[in-house]
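Morning. Coffee machine broken again, so started the prediction first thing and wrote up yesterday's gels while waiting. Chain of 232 residues, entered below exactly as on the submission form.
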Amino acid sequence: MSRIIEFTLQSKGGVGKSFHTYCRALSVPDEHSLFVDVDSSTQTSTRQLKFLGAERLETISLLDNRDVLVRDKFLGYMESLAESPFERIFMDFGAPESEQIPALIQRDIPFREFCDELNFEVVFNVVIGGGGAYKASVDYLQKIVSVLNDEFKIIVWENITSFNQFPALSAELADNCKRMGLLYKRFGDFEPSTLLGGQVLDGIRRGYSLSDYSPGARIRMKKELKENFGHE
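Came back before lunch.
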């Protein structure tokens, strides 16, 4: 059976990888999907996705005691997913794990051939933060683009709130993605200083399902999912 596996990556911490994964989980309310927290340092997705239940949420550690990615363990886990009953698998990587993924792809194994052997369609979601996180985020994106060499689908996700005071950077990111032929999407337009924005962000931290939100916050979250994750 063919499976879609989506990686959410960014070596710069705090840009919204787990936030993105949370929105994906709400937009894919399907028992045939699995979410995997691969962030050994914070395990944010494990907390935020508790509404999924143990059947649809896994937490794994791929780092050794020196915070180095155990690449054989990662490849072994990928192989185990070939026997999984799930058709779609979403993996939220922490910053240290994300940082080491390019080396694995570039040096260890022909990753395209590996995925084809397992009958996996792998998508790379790269989250970009604005402001002070922008340069490091974009540098990582360029590294991913370079090592993947057009062999995999890449989706660039702009974390809207982090760009609100930096419209020029947002425009630059959109233009560069267009020039490079990369799919560009935006998500997370929640201003913490507003009532509904604050309620939604608090609900995310607490691991709310849609039904846990107050009516106003629930409607606001549904708007986010429809506008930015409606393709799901």
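The chain has one domain: 3-192. Going to sketch it on the whiteboard this afternoon.
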